[in-house]
Design brief:
Arc Repressor Mutant, subunit A, 9 strands, alpha+beta, 3 domains
Length: 281
């Protein structure tokens, strides 16, 4: 992406914890960070737009994942915090858009569900046969370790089972809710068991797109062409629909095609100044 104005970078430093003085160091701080930004990736670095727990743990802008993550202290801390936050169950965690591991604050769970989660009556049409078998077992048992779930579901081929779990996570049906290391295994459960109120709440898809776009723009300060889509996992059309609604209500300003900024930032206060500064991008 082209360089952003320094004012926007400073805004992101504060909201995304890209500052050593406010970096994330424990599970409580990780939960506060996720609540502030609305949603965050787990182990993405500066090459992918959007808030990231790993970047927040590092506390700096230009972060790259090392080749040998097993020996990297910051990566290990991020992984430990991911497990702790997942166990505590106060924010949503799963592989969501594009198969990326993401955290979602409770206030946005209903919005992501409106975009990603099919209703139960639609599952025979939207879920694969393997995913339906895994889901049927979890609805009976409510939680199972990986090996037991694979055996009970009859989806014994490892690759097919992994694809089924990834599919169920993307559609917000199943979540990992704990992890055991000796031997290594995730404990899988139903998303609706842990977040019943949020997943039962029905909101319009259009409203959901607006609120997801709002959360991203609030933390980003400004979005470049295609950035909202890449950060959220929405299509470009859906991300655009969300941003257009923010402009209509006065929360955002459209600088030029595909570029939006928070309306209350000084950068966006005067249209002439706004356009001249941002055209340099």
């Amino acid at each position: 992406m082209p360089p952003l104005p320094e004012q926007i970078e400073l805004h992101r430093d504060r909201l995304w914890r890209r500052d050593e003085e406010i970096r994330v160091e424990n599970a409580l701080e990780a939960e506060r960070f996720i609540e502030d930004v609305g949603f965050a990736n787990t182990l993405t670095d500066a090459r992918r737009p959007g808030p990231s727990l790993y970047i927040a743990v590092c506390g700096r802008r230009d972060v790259s994942l090392p080749r040998n993550v097993q020996k990297d202290e910051e990566t290990r801390l991020t992984w430990y915090l991911k497990d702790e936050v997942m166990r505590r169950g106060r924010v949503y965690y799963a592989k969501l858009a594009a198969g990326r591991s993401m955290f979602v604050a409770p206030r946005l769970i209903s919005s992501f569900a409106a975009v990603s989660m099919p209703q139960q009556e639609d599952e025979p049409r939207t879920l694969s046969g393997a995913a339906q078998r895994v889901l049927k077992v979890l609805r009976r048992e409510h939680e199972l370790g990986t090996a037991d779930l694979r055996a009970e579901s009859g989806v014994t081929e490892r690759a097919a089972f992994t694809r089924a779990l990834d599919e169920l996570q993307r559609q917000m049906k199943v979540i990992p809710q704990d992890v055991i290391y000796q031997p290594f295994s995730y404990i899988w459960g139903l998303a609706e068991d842990r977040f019943p109120a949020e997943l039962r709440k029905r909101i319009a898809r259009k409203t959901a797109l607006r609120e997801i776009a709002r959360a991203y723009l609030m933390g980003a300060g400004m979005t470049l062409l295609g950035e909202t889509a890449r950060a959220t996992g929405l299509s470009r059309v859906d991300a655009g629909l969300g941003n257009h609604q923010l402009v209509d209500e006065g929360y955002a300003v459209r600088v030029q095609r595909g570029i939006y900024a928070l309306a209350n930032l000084p950068l966006a206060s005067a249209s002439g100044t706004r356009t001249s500064k941002l055209n340099r991008l």
